[in-house]
Amino acid sequence: MTTPPTRGETVILAGGIVTVVASFFAFYSAGGFSVTAWDNGLSPIALYPVFAGGISAAVVALRRFANTDLSVRFGGFTWEQVHMLLGLFALLITGGYFWRGGQGADFGLGFWGMFGGSIALLVGAAMFSREHSGPFGPRH
Question: What integer is the mean pLDDT of 57-68?
Answer without folding.
Answer: 89
